[in-house]
Write a structure and sequence with these properties.
The chain is an alpha+beta fold. It contains 5 helices and 12 strands. The longest helix has 29 residues.
Length: about 190
């Protein structure tokens, strides 16, 4: 009996399961996310250049900038409790440490094609000062961006109320600035019933 158990443990030691490699990747991704969160906290606590530092996220095929003080936390996608008879962009409810948050597929709400949640997808929890427990699903987290390194683009087209400005960075990449306060107060955003 010990021979079977001992040889099994030797096999595991010599030939780690494929899941172990995935766990290492997940830890690296988790470390990256924790680093971003620590930097977010550091910037918000120090108060330095808070208005010019933004969180870059991908929503649909568009890169957006979100004010750091508009979000309280960035999470991997938790288990989603689906809610029937709601709009297609309303994904359901998520439980974050005992608190329920309404989860919105932000890409679909903004009019882009809906994208399935992947390992790169993240949930932005909106700040408590807005008085709403809402989570916003984004395709992926890009990282911190500084508006001082970008140029404001002239508004050529009509833009939605929740888009503040369009910027272009040093590599000619466009960034749209998201006004979460305006987005959260939109009548359509608050009406999730189908």
């Amino acid at each position: 009996m010990c021979n079977q158990a001992c040889s099994s443990s030797r096999i595991v030691e010599q030939d780690p399961s494929p899941g172990l490699g995935m766990a290492r990747k997940k830890l690296n991704l988790q470390a990256y996310q924790q680093d971003i969160l620590a930097r977010l906290k550091s910037v918000s606590e120090s108060g330095r250049a808070l208005s010019s530092s933004k969180l870059g996220v991908r929503i649909g095929a568009v890169d957006w900038l979100v004010a750091l003080d508009d979000i309280s936390e960035v999470l991997s996608v938790p288990d989603i409790m689906r809610v029937p008879l709601t709009r297609s962009w309303f994904m359901g409810m998520v439980n974050v440490r005992g608190n329920l948050y309404a989860l919105t597929d932000l890409a679909e709400f903004l009019g882009y094609p809906s994208v399935a949640a992947t390992s790169e997808s993240r949930v932005l929890l909106v700040h408590g000062r807005f008085g709403i427990n809402a989570g916003l699903l984004v395709d992926r987290l890009i990282g911190l961006r500084n508006l001082e390194d970008m140029q404001v683009q002239q508004a050529v087209e009509e833009k939605p109320a929740w888009q503040l400005q369009r910027y272009i960075d040093g590599s000619n990449k466009n960034w749209d600035e998201l006004n979460l306060e305006v987005l959260l107060t939109q009548k359509d955003f608050m009406q999730v019933a189908a």
